[in-house]
C-alpha cells in the first residue's frame, strides 16, 4: 500500500495561509486581538484568550498572503482603529469582541461583531434533499448592506503535511467583506482568499445519464444504443447504488455501503466499463461510505491486511475519516483497485451527518477534499481532477462538481432551482448538478419535464436522474410526442453548447467569473435587478429567464415576467429561440413561450460559438461524420451572431500540448484561442487565426440571428482564401426553409489554410428585423382558446383598423376587455409593446394587466378590417384569415 509520503497528490495542494507581516495589526506582546488587512475591502479579525493565533489553512481560507493595501492605524491604549479608503474598523481593547465592541463602518452603516455570518443575498445550502420548493440558504459574501461577514471560527484546518487539523476552542476568526455593492469585486477577493474554481474537463459539460435502477450490463448497453438511435449524445454514465452488492446477509447490516460489483447484474465489470469507454462515456459510481468495509466485500482481506485488522471474526473495518491510515487504505487499496477496472470518478453520496470524533471535522469536507486531490492520479482518463458530492460550506467550490440531492418532482421544486443555482455564485459555488426532472414523489407531467430539461440545458451541469420507481424514468422517448421532441431538442442543443461552456469554464477558473450570475452582479445599482431572482446571466451576454409554471390553457404558453436591463446605447434584445421577437431594453415585460421554447435573450452585439449541429452535415457535406457519444472536439464551429452593435467573443479550447500533462491549471496562454469580432459599421465579421491551433482546416457555420436582410447573404469576403461550401440542391432547399423558419440567415464557410485571418462581409450596419406586429398577433390570436367574438375586437384594437383612439387609448381598452383571459391580454401586449420600431407599437405604455375583470360591457360591432377576409353571420363579424 502507498504510504502518505508516496501519495503527494492527496496531501499536497496549493496554499499560502500565512499573511504578509506588513498587513497585520496586533497579535504580539500579549495582544488578544489580531487584524489582517488583506485588501482595502477585506479584513480578517481574530481574538484569542491565550494570545496565540491561527496561521494554518482552513477549509475557507487557503491563501492569506496578499499584497498589503494602503491603510492607516491608530493604536491607542484602549482602542485600535484601522482605516482604508473603503472601511474603518474600531476595536475597544476592554475584552472579547462582544465585550470590547468590534465594529466595522462602511458605506454609512456599521457592523458590530455578533459571532454570526451575514450575507443577506444568500449563498447556497448543503443539499436539496427532500426539498419541495424553497429552502433556507446559508450566507454568501454579497449583501444588500455595504458589508457581509463569514465567520470561520469552527471550520476544519489543514496542517503543514496536508492532513486535517482542529481548532482551539474559544478563539474568534472571521472575515468582513466591505464591498458596498461591488459584487464582482467581493467575489474576486473571496476567490483570492479561498482559491479559484478548478477548470472542468470538456466532457463534464455534456449530458449525464443517471437513474436509481437495477440495471444489468445488457440493459445499460441497450439504453446507450437507444440514445444513439435517437441521436442524443451522452458524455457521462452514472451508476447508482445497485452497481454493488445491496442484498447482503442481515448480519452485515445495511446494503447502502458497498464496494463489490453485483455480478448478477454485471458479470464482467472491466469489460462493461471498457464498452462504455469505447462509446466515449466517462463513468462514475455511487458511494455511501458510512458503514465502512465489511467481511462480504471482495477487497475486505486486502484492506484488512493494509490496516493490520483482525479478520478472524469478520469484524467490520469502520469508516473513520479522521484516521489517516484508514483513509490511505480506503483510497490506495479499495478504490484504486476499482478505478483500475475502469471507474473514472466517484459520486460521494454522504448523508450521515456532519460530526466525527474530532471537533469541527465534518466527514463531508474530508471526503470532498481528499477525493478531489486523489482523482489527480486518473488525469490521463479524466483530463482534470473531479469529484461529485454535496456542498460542505464556504470553500467547497474547489471540489467540483456539486450534487444537490433528492428533490420532489413538483413545480415548486422547479420554481426554486434557478434562484438556488444563481445565488450559489454568491459564495463562489459555480458548478451545481441537479436531478433534472426532480428525484422522487410528486407527479408525472410531460410539461414540467420539458421545462426542467430547458433549465438543465442552461444550468452548470445537465444530469437526468430519478429514484427507484418502475413508473419513474427520464428517457426522452418515454414522454408524449411533443414533449419527446422538445426534450431531445434541448439535450442536443446542450451538447452543441460545449465549446461555449468550456470557454466559460476557463473564464470561471482564470477570470473569477462563474458561468451563472444573478442579475444584480452587473446591475446592482438598479433596484429592478433584485426583483427577478429566477433570471440570470449565462456567461457575459446571455440572459436566461426559465419558465417554471404550467402553460396557460388559453394561450398554450408558459409565461414569465422578465426585466430587460437598460444600456447606455439602448441596445435591444432578441430571443435566440424565438428570433422573430425583439425587445426594447430598460423595462419589465411578460414573456410567453410555447413548450418548445425557453427565453434566452441576447443583446445586440452578441457572439456565441457552438458545435456545428448534426443537421448541417447531412445537408452540406458529402460524408457526414458518424454519430458518437462523448465530447471529442470537432474542428467545426457554429457562430451565432446578433447584429446591431459591435461584438466580440474569444473561443477558448484545450491546450493542444502541455509541458506538464499533470498540470491542473496550465498557463492561460497555453490554451487555443480564436478571436471572433463583428464590426457593425463595416458589416464585417473577422475570425483571427487560432493561437496555438494546429487544425489545418476548420469549417464555420455563420448564423446571423433575426436578420433576413438579403445583404447578409451577399458578397462574401474582403480578401481571404475562404470559399463557400455549396450543398446540393436538396441541401440548399433545406437551408433556405430553415432560414425562413428560424428568421435567420445562414452562411456556410470553409477555410484553408488555417493560418489566415478571415474577414466576411455581411452588410454594413445590419439591423435586427423589426417585429411584425400583425403577423405575430395573428399567429398567436388564432391559436388562443377563448370566445371567438372578442378576437375580432382585439385585432382591431392592435391594428387600429376601424378603431378610434391613439395607441395608448387602445392599450387601455384592451386591458379592460371582458370575456378575454388576462393571459391572452398579456400575450398580445408582449407583442404589441416589444419593439419600438414596429409600426403602431405600444412600446412605452404600461403593459401590465390587472387580474380584476372590468365593469364595462364590450360591444361587438360589424367591422370592415383592412387586410382581412371577414364574414357577417347573424350580425356578428367573424375573422377568417389575413389576405
From TrEMBL:
Residues 198-504 form the Glycoside hydrolase family 31 TIM barrel domain. Gene3D superfamilies: Glycosidases, glycosyl hydrolase (family 31). It holds the Pfam family Glyco_hydro_31_2nd. Transmembrane segments: none annotated. GO terms for molecular function: alpha-1,4-glucosidase activity. Residues 513-608 form the Glycosyl hydrolase family 31 C-terminal domain. The keyword DNA repair does not apply. Its EC number is 3.2.1.20. It is an enzyme of class 3 (hydrolase). The keyword Hydrolase applies. One of its GO terms (biological process) is carbohydrate metabolic process. InterPro entries: GH, Glyco_hydro_31_C, Glyco_hydro_31_TIM. Keywords: Glycosidase, Hydrolase. It catalyses: Hydrolysis of terminal, non-reducing (1->4)-linked alpha-D-glucose residues with release of alpha-D-glucose. CDD domains: GH31_u1. Belongs to the glycosyl hydrolase 31 family. This is alpha-glucosidase. It comes from Rhypophila decipiens.
Amino acid at each position: 500500500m502507498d504510504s502518505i509520503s508516496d501519495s503527494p497528490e492527496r496531501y499536497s495542494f496549493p496554499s499560502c495561509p500565512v499573511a504578509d507581516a506588513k498587513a497585520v495589526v496586533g497579535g504580539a506582546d500579549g495582544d488578544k486581538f489580531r487584524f489582517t488587512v488583506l485588501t482595502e475591502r477585506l479584513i480578517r479579525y481574530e481574538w484569542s484568550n491565550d494570545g496565540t493565533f491561527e496561521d494554518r489553512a482552513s477549509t475557507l481560507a487557503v491563501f492569506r498572503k496578499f499584497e498589503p493595501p494602503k491603510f492607516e492605524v491608530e493604536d491607542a491604549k484602549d482602542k485600535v482603529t484601522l482605516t482604508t479608503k473603503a472601511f474603518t474598523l474600531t476595536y475597544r481593547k476592554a475584552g472579547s469582541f462582544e465585550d470590547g465592541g468590534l465594529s466595522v463602518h462602511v458605506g454609512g452603516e456599521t457592523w458590530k461583531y455578533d459571532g454570526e455570518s451575514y450575507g443577506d443575498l444568500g449563498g447556497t445550502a448543503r443539499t436539496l434533499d427532500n426539498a419541495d420548493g424553497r429552502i433556507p440558504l446559508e450566507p454568501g459574501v454579497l449583501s444588500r448592506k455595504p458589508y457581509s461577514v463569514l465567520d470561520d471560527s469552527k471550520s476544519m484546518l489543514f496542517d503543514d503535511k496536508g492532513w486535517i487539523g482542529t481548532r482551539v476552542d474559544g478563539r474568534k476568526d472571521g472575515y468582513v467583506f466591505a464591498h458596498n455593492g461591488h459584487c464582482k469585486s467581493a467575489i474576486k477577493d473571496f476567490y483570492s482568499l479561498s482559491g479559484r474554481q478548478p477548470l472542468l474537463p470538456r466532457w463534464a459539460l455534456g449530458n449525464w445519464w443517471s437513474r436509481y435502477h437495477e440495471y444489468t450490463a445488457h440493459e445499460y448497453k441497450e439504453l446507450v444504443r437507444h440514445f444513439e438511435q435517437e441521436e442524443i449524445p451522452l458524455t457521462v454514465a452514472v451508476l447508482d447504488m445497485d452497481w454493488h452488492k445491496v442484498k447482503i446477509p442481515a448480519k452485515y447490516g445495511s446494503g447502502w455501503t458497498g464496494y463489490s460489483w453485483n455480478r448478477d447484474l454485471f458479470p464482467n465489470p472491466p469489460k462493461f466499463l471498457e464498452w462504455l469507454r469505447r462509446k466515449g462515456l466517462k463513468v462514475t459510481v455511487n458511494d455511501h461510505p458510512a458503514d465502512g468495509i465489511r467481511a462480504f466485500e471482495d477487497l475486505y482481506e486486502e484492506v484488512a491486511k493494509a490496516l493490520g485488522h483482525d479478520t478472524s471474526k469478520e469484524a467490520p473495518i469502520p469508516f473513520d475519516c479522521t484516521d489517516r491510515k484508514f483513509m490511505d487504505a480506503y483510497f490506495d487499496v479499495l478504490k484504486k483497485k476499482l478505478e483500475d477496472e475502469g471507474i473514472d470518478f466517484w459520486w460521494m453520496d454522504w448523508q450521515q451527518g456532519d460530526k466525527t470524533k474530532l471537533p469541527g471535522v465534518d466527514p463531508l469536507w474530508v471526503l470532498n477534499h481528499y477525493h478531489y486531490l486523489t482523482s489527480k492520479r486518473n488525469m490521463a482518463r479524466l483530463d482534470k481532477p473531479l469529484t461529485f458530492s454535496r456542498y460542505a460550506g464556504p470553500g467547497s467550490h474547489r471540489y467540483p462538481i456539486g450534487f444537490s440531492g433528492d428533490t420532489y418532482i413538483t413545480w415548486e421544486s422547479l420554481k426554486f432551482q434557478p434562484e438556488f443555482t444563481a445565488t450559489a455564485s454568491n459564495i463562489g459555488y459555480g458548478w451545481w448538478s441537479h436531478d433534472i426532472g426532480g428525484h422522487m414523489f410528486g407527479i408525472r407531467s410531460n410539461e414540467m419535464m420539458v421545462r426542467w430539461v430547458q433549465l438543465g440545458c442552461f444550468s452548470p451541469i445537465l444530469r437526468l436522474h430519478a429514484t427507484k420507481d418502475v413508473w419513474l424514468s427520464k428517457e426522452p422517448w418515454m414522454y408524449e410526442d411533443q414533449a419527446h421532441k422538445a426534450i431531445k431538442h434541448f439535450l442536443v442543443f446542450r451538447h452543441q453548447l460545449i465549446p461555449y461552456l468550456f470557454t466559460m469554464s476557463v473564464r470561471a477558473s482564470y477570470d473569477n467569473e462563474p458561468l451563472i450570475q444573478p442579475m444584480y452582479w452587473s446591475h446592482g445599482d438598479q433596484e429592478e435587478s433584485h426583483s427577478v431572482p429566477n433570471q440570470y446571466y449565462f456567461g457575459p451576454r446571455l440572459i436566461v429567464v426559465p419558465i417554471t409554471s404550467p402553460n396557460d390553457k388559453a394561450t398554450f404558453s408558459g409565461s414569465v415576467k422578465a426585466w430587460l436591463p437598460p444600456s447606455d446605447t439602448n441596445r435591444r434584445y432578441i430571443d435566440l429561440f424565438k428570433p422573430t421577437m425583439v425587445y426594447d431594453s430598460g423595462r419589465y415585460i411578460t414573456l410567453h413561450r410555447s413548450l418548445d421554447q425557453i427565453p434566452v435573450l441576447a443583446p445586440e452585439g452578441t457572439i456565441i460559438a457552438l458545435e456545428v449541429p448534426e443537421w448541417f452535415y447531412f445537408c452540406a457535406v458529402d460524408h457526414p461524420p458518424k454519430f458518437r457519444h462523448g465530447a471529442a472536439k470537432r474542428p467545426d464551429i457554429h457562430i451565432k451572431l446578433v447584429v446591431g452593435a459591435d461584438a466580440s467573443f474569444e473561443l477558448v479550447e484545450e491546450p493542444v500540448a502541455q509541458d506538464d500533462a499533470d498540470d491542473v491549471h496550465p498557463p492561460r496562454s497555453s490554451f487555443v484561442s480564436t478571436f471572433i469580432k463583428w464590426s457593425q459599421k463595416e458589416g464585417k465579421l473577422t475570425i483571427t487565426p487560432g493561437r496555438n491551433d494546429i487544425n489545418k482546416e476548420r469549417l464555420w457555420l455563420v448564423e446571423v440571428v433575426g436578420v433576413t436582410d438579403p445583404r447578409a447573404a451577399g458578397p462574401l469576403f474582403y480578401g481571404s482564401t475562404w470559399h463557400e461550401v455549396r450543398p446540393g440542391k436538396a441541401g440548399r432547399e433545406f437551408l433556405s426553409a430553415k432560414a425562413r423558419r428560424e428568421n435567420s440567415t445562414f452562411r456556410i464557410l470553409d477555410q484553408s489554410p488555417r493560418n489566415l485571418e478571415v474577414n466576411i462581409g455581411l452588410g454594413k450596419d445590419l439591423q435586427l428585423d423589426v417585429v411584425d406586429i400583425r403577423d405575430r398577433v395573428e399567429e398567436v390570436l388564432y391559436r388562443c382558446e377563448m370566445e371567438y367574438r372578442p378576437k375580432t375586437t382585439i385585432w382591431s384594437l392592435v391594428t387600429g383598423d376601424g378603431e378610434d383612439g391613439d395607441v395608448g387609448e387602445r392599450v387601455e381598452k384592451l386591458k379592460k376587455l371582458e370575456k378575454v383571459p388576462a393571459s391572452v391580454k398579456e400575450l398580445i401586449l408582449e407583442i404589441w409593446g416589444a419593439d419600438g420600431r414596429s409600426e403602431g407599437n405600444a412600446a412605452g405604455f404600461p403593459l401590465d394587466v390587472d387580474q380584476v375583470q372590468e365593469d364595462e360591457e364590450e360591444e361587438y360591432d360589424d367591422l370592415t378590417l383592412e387586410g382581412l377576409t371577414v364574414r357577417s353571420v347573424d350580425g356578428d363579424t367573424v375573422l377568417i384569415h389575413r389576405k
